[in-house]
Design a protein that fits this description.
This protein has 2 helices and 20 strands. By secondary structure, the chain is mainly beta. It has a single domain, classed as Glycoside hydrolase, family 65, N-terminal domain (Beta-galactosidase, Chain A, domain 5), CATH 2.70.98.
Length: about 240
């Protein structure tokens, strides 16, 4: 077996290497709002999966998404900047990636530009993910979304104890979508339908993996949605 270290492909984005920050997001929160729906993210557009924070996508007072995280080749992207529109209607995050091992080389930090655009509309969360390859070589990417739904109401999230809770249903998995559902003590059924486009490699109750190939200089856009619904109330 050769001990020769993998070579790095040529890239024209060394300025991103300087701008890229540590992959742990700043603590300040970003809030999207639309009608009866709001969402709280960190500055990378992430919803942490610990359950200890108030981050999440909320609809009609219930948290429908308690985890929403993006990994690229099993690594977290590095923040460049993020911008919330003044009326809190859309949130844009620009990122790059750390060094990413490929089959026979390493894709250097700053080669891939990652653009996330998020908004809420009619009880649905939308994410557009644009990926741009600034190298001259083709690259292969494993795009992984991790997600969860705890269906806790806002008072529980803020620390109020409930002696009883409703019933979480088993996840329903389709070719490129997952439905997570919960029946509360109020006999209302709440569900979130999470769907992805693109080349889906694997889909499970708490994650979806997509395969992306980009030629030198190419870009592509993926889409993800999380539709929040409450039975007998339309949305």
């Amino acid at each position: 077996m050769s001990n020769t270290p993998p070579t790095k492909v040529q890239t024209n984005t060394t300025d991103w290497d300087v701008q890229a920050k540590n992959n742990r997001a700043p603590a300040d929160s970003q809030v999207l709002k639309q009608g009866d729906t709001f969402a709280i993210f960190d500055r990378l557009g992430e919803i942490g999966g610990t359950g200890e924070s108030e981050q999440g996508v909320y609809h009609l007072g219930t948290r429908f998404l308690s985890n929403w995280e993006l990994l690229i080749n099993e690594k977290r992207p590095l923040l460049l900047n993020s911008t919330m529109k003044e009326d809190n209607s859309s949130f844009v995050v620009q990122m790059t990636t750390p060094d990413l091992p490929q089959t026979d080389h390493v894709l250097p930090q700053g080669t891939l530009h990652v653009f996330r655009s998020m908004l809420l509309d009619g009880g649905t969360f939308y994410e557009h993910l644009r990926l741009k390859n600034y190298s001259r070589s083709p690259i292969e990417l494993k795009i992984e979304y991790r997600f969860a739904a705890d269906f806790r109401d806002i008072f529980e999230v803020r620390g109020e104890h409930r002696s009883r809770r409703g019933e979480l249903h088993d996840a329903e998995i389709r070719e490129s979508a997952v439905k997570l559902a919960y029946c509360g003590l109020d006999e209302q059924k709440r569900e979130v339908n999470i769907a992805f486009d693109g080349d889906v490699d694997a889909i499970e109750p708490r994650r979806c993996v997509l395969h992306v190939q980009l030629g030198g200089g190419d870009e592509t856009t993926l889409h993800a949605t999380a539709e929040c619904r409450t039975e007998n109330q339309g949305t």
